[in-house]
Design goal:
- This protein is α/β, with parallel strands linked by helices.
- It has helices at residues 16-27, 46-52, 79-84, 95-100, 105-117, 130-135, 138-149, 179-196, 199-204, 215-222, 239-246, and strands at residues 4-9, 35-40, 59-62, 89-92, 121-126, 161-165, 207-210, 229-232.
- An eight-stranded parallel beta barrel has the order 1-2-3-4-5-6-7-8, surrounded by six helices.
- β2 (35-40), α2 and β3 form a beta-alpha-beta unit.
- α5 crosses α7 (138-149) and α10 (215-222) runs parallel beside α11.
- The longest helix has 18 residues, at 179-196.
- The protein is globular and about 45 Å long.
- The structure holds 1,3-dihydroxyacetonephosphate.
- 1,3-dihydroxyacetonephosphate binds at residues 9, 94, 166, 171-172, 210-213, 231-235.
């Protein structure tokens, strides 16, 4: 059985007080045993979130990290810094990092390597833009992202990888991929993992969908056979809507 995962990417939202307030709300909720739940607050609040969630099943993820272990990289944060405050999971390759911070596939491959060297779990994001969707080459785009950033890793590293299909046109737009579009892409991703590695790795890797997931559409999207959960932006900033999404599996 593949792991069911729901991760809240808080992006650049919530200062310390707001982070604590949202965590307090979330901590009142019962997390279903079969779902792994993550929240990804801003760097400044990661340590606080980790301490606050110490005896709670919700885990903490970072939204990004630098590929180097240390050095003169003003403003950056390393894998060792994250693990030193208890954070063992990192989101890499988010389309906002690709679009606004010029992160390309080669750089992301380095980040993946660094995270794995530090025994972190990577939630690796892939997805096409609206133009690429319209041009009809979305399978090629996603395949290339995987080939150039992830498919160099060894078989033994796959238990530390979660994939997240996030079509750029569905992020923060209120427009969601239809359950059929999500399933079609997730099935494709799983099939290329199988042909590049093994059936058993493809069967085991969790593939999340992200892009305007809301309580109203989560059940249908998560009901698709190759969708193993979600990476949630806007709806993760409210405890009730996030928990409704977490409970969409139940
Ligand atoms: P929204 O849920 O706000 O569309 O964001 C999705 C996302 O980018 C999660 O990483």
């Amino acid at each position: 059985m593949r792991k069911k995962i729901v991760a809240g990417n808080w992006k650049m939202n919530n200062d310390l007080a707001e982070t604590e307030a949202l965590l307090q709300e979330l901590k009142k909720q019962v997390i279903p045993e079969q779902v792994s739940v993550f929240v990804a607050p801003a760097y400044t609040n990661l340590q606080h979130a980790f301490e606050s969630l110490r005896d709670h099943p919700i885990a903490v993820a970072a939204q990004n990290m630098h590929q180097s272990d240390h050095g003169a990289f003003t403003g950056e944060v390393s894998a060792a810094m994250l693990t030193s405050v208890g954070v063992k999971t990192v989101i890499l390759g988010h389309s906002e990092r690709r679009a606004y911070f010029a992160e390309d596939n080669a750089l992301l491959a380095e980040k993946v390597n660094t995270a794995l060297q530090h025994e972190m779990t990577v939630i690796f994001c892939i997805g096409e833009t609206l133009q690429e969707r319209k041009e009809g080459n979305y399978f090629e785009v996603v395949t290339k992202q995987l080939e150039e950033s992830v498919f160099h890793i060894s078989e033994k590293d796959w238990p530390h990888i979660v994939l997240a299909y996030e079509p750029v046109w569905a992020i923060g737009t209120g427009e969601t991929a239809s359950p059929q579009q999500a399933q079609e892409m997730h099935e494709k991703i799983r099939s290329i993992v199988a042909s590049t590695y093994t059936e058993s790795i493809a069967d085991s890797v969790s593939i999340l969908y992200g892009g305007s997931v809301k309580p109203e559409n989560a059940t249908e999207i998560f009901g698709q056979p190759d969708v193993d959960g979600g990476l949630i932006g806007g709806a993760s900033l409210n405890a009730q809507s996030f928990m409704e999404i977490v409970n969409a599996f139940v």
